[in-house]
Amino acid sequence: MVKNGEFFVIKDMRQKGMTITQISNELGRDRKTIRKWLIEPEAKSYKRKPSEKTILEPFKNYIRQRMQEGCLNAVVLLEEIKAQGYSGGITTLRMFMKPIRPTVVSKATERFETPPGKQAQVDWGTFRVDWMGQKKRIYAFVMILGYSRMMYVEFTEDEKLETLKGCHIRAMEYFGE
Questions:
Q1: Are strands 134-145 and 120-131 parallel, antiparallel or unpaired?
Q2: Average pLDDT, integer, range 22-47
Q3: Is residue 143 domain-resident?
Q4: Across the chain, what does the average pLDDT equal?
Q5: 2-6, 81-85, 94-98, 149-153: least confidently modelled range
Q6: N or C: which end of the chain has fewer CB within 10 A?
Q7: In the chain, how many domains are there?
Q8: Residue 153: in which H helix or E strand, if any?
Q9: Quick check: 137 and 126 in contact, CB under 8 A?
Q10: Which PROSITE patterns match (predicted)?
């Protein structure tokens, strides 16, 4: 099929005196195609085929209603419509649901605000390092203040309770607590 832009190029080339063979060679199209499009009075518009009925058609109103009620889980909806006689698969259902599914507008994470001096978060990190030619595991104690996000990091050789207590004490001294 010739695109609308190409249709006008064909008409223009013919008005400039080019033969059908010259136009077909220039555009890389068959001579019969060029001749057919030269006969046409105007460019044809693309007509979308009418949508065919699918096996999901009888269940679409029910699915829309359930989605408005808040059920956005395709697996749950599939079970419900299968109980009503649907014989198709989940892919067809998901393709129908995708354009009408509401987009998530909330943030993935919410910032947790605390007053000064109220909270700190603590965690351990694990690392493997080369220490004098040998692989050694070391740990990082990390404390972050909730209000200012100020951070204290200390590397240790173990995660024992005594080490944890010592890290807490040194972190508090560092923060001036």
A1: antiparallel
A2: 86
A3: yes
A4: 88
A5: 2-6
A6: N
A7: 3
A8: strand 151-156
A9: yes
A10: HTH_IS21
Which H or E run contains 51? none
pLDDT at 162: 96
Name the residue range of residue 64's domain: 57-100
Same domain, 34 and 61: no
Q: How far apart are CA 80 and CA 84, in angstroms?
A: 7
* Mean pLDDT within 50-60: 84
Which burial class, exposed, middle or buried, applies to 56 when counting CB atoms under 10 A from its CB (0-12, 13-18, 19+)?
middle
Regarding whether 62 and 96 lie in a shared domain, the answer is yes
SS3 52: coil
86-142 pLDDT, tens per residue?
A: 999 999 999 999 988 877 666 667 777 788 888 999 999 999 999 888 999 999 999
CA 60, distance to chain mean position in Å, is 25
Q: What b/e readout covers 9-20, taking b as 16+ CB neighbours within 10 angstroms? A: ebbebbeeebeb
The answer to whether position 110 is within a domain reads no
* 47 domain residue, yes or no: no
pLDDT at residue number 37: 85
User: Does 94 fall in a domain?
Assistant: yes
Rg (CA), the chain: 35
Q: How far apart are CA 128 and CA 137, in angstroms?
A: 5
In this structure, the answer to whether residues 171 and 130 fall within a common structural domain is yes
Question: Between β-strands 134-145 and 151-156, what pairing exists: parallel, antiparallel or unpaired?
Answer: antiparallel
Q: What is the pLDDT of residue 1?
A: 54
